[in-house]
Amino acid sequence: MELEKYSMGIGDRFARQGKAQLQALIRAKDDGMDVVPVWNKSHREHMIIGTSPSDVRREADGAVEALGWKSPYHVDADHIGLKNVDLFIEASDFYTLDVADLIGEAADAAQVQAFVDRHARYVGALEIAGIDEPLEVTRERMEAIAARYLLGVQEAGRIYRHIEAKKGKGKFITEVSMDETQAPQTPLEMFFILAAIADEGIPAQTIAPKFTGRFNKGVDYQGDVDQFAREFDEDLAVIRFAVAEFGLPANLKLSVHSGSDKFSIYGPINRSIRKYDAGLHLKTAGTTWLEELIGLAEAGGTGLDIAREVYKISLGRFDELCGPYATVIDIDKNRLPLVNEVESWSGEEYAAALRHDQDCAQYNPHFRQLLHVAYKVAAEMGERFLGALEENEEIIARNVLENVYVRHLKRIFA
To answer: pTM for the complete prediction?
Structure first.
């Protein structure tokens, strides 16, 4: 199974907006942007909401059938490991192997030395087309890279082989994820990570590195855009070189995680993938749930009552909800509106504060980030919340479509 050149991970917390998401991709296709959908949901989200991987498969299959989508599509077992991968075997055909927890854990010294010996031919000045200066490679530097990353890649190999034994060779797509780490990978580190992936026999079709800057949930990129652009461009150069050097899949491409709403870097990404004629996987999640809240608020009545209540409860449970996401949110509690203020808002005012429109004076990124991680509150409302989604499907779907198509697809793939 081969992943197409351009793909977009479309998260959907409550598995209700598959048709609206797919409609955005159909519109993009009509406009000459051939991007395939990858419905993704993590084990953590399933546990919080009370869904299962089969719910995501049903959502994807149902949307495809209802809208007559004839192109490929996929279902991603997002950020899985050996402890939970079996839950996704039947429903998924795309696996994001998350080994970030093992990065930095010291690998076996003998295996590190074996890795360095295997790749000793690269000691010296390593020239890679697209990178201005040669990369200086020493045995000591290789040893340090292997010591930091080898254990994680070996774990990815174990997960991959476990899935292969269950599903069969070539029957699924593999992504290796290293984005949830403290420090970004340098081009030299990326090169030897790819060497280790090849050594493990992992036919990775996408790799998700850590980039400089903050990729906070649901808001724009925070960091030096020019530096990001250089890193992204150099990573593409390394991938192109490594594919030829190590016999990795020809369609191996970068995957940008927490890619929702990173508007300031979409331009540089677009320019780089055009420059290298490279593919891209943009993984988004969580923003569809925010569009549901926006739609409920705009609907007024019971929908607005629910949206207000979600915020009230979330503010009261701030530490509980934000704790698991502490490294990917940046909320100033002093800039969050008071509950009685939100209670006085109209639906339009609530939507304006939440919708990611940076030209809108009412937009509040702190309000948005808190609600981004507050889906647990809505899940606890059960049928009351889900019934409101069904009742207000038309207005919600309009917001979901606009978010996926206008704010994301058009900005990065056009």
So the answer is: 0.95
- In CATH terms, the fold of domain 6-285 is TIM Barrel (3.20.20)
Beta strands 124-126 and 36-42 are unpaired
CB-count exposure of residue 140 (10 Å: 0-12, 13-18, 19+): exposed
Q: Which two tokens stand for residue 305?
A: 């009552």
For residues 102, 214, 370, 16, the Cα torsion angle rounded to the nearest 10 degrees is: -70
Segment 208-257, tens digit of pLDDT: 999 999 999 999 999 999 999 999 999 999 999 999 999 999 999 999 99
pLDDT tens for each residue of 163-196? 999 999 999 999 999 887 778 999 999 999 999 9
Record the tokens describing residue 338, joined without a space.
């008071």
Name the burial class of residue 185, with classes exposed (0-12), middle (13-18) and buried (19+) by CB atoms within 10 angstroms of its CB: buried
Q: Which two tokens stand for residue 75?
A: 């279902």
CA 154 to each of CA 161, 197, 268, 380: distance values in angstroms, whole numbers, following the listed order: 11, 8, 32, 39
Where do the domains of the chain lie? 6-285, 288-405
The span from the CA of 11 to the CA of 56, in Å, is: 9
Of 72, 149, 143, 69, the C-alpha closest to 105 is 149
Q: Which tokens belong to 187?
A: 């081009």
Distance CA 194, CA 409 (A): 28
Structure tokens at 263: 């508007």
Q: How do strand 135-137 and strand 74-80 relate by DSSP bridges?
A: unpaired
Q: Could you give the residue ranges of the DSSP H alpha helices within 247-392?
A: 263-276, 287-299, 301-316, 318-322, 339-344, 347-354, 365-372, 375-381, 383-391
Single-letter residue type at 324: P
Strand, coil or helix: 406: helix
- Strand intervals (E) in 206-286: 206-208, 253-256, 280-284
pLDDT for 180: 73
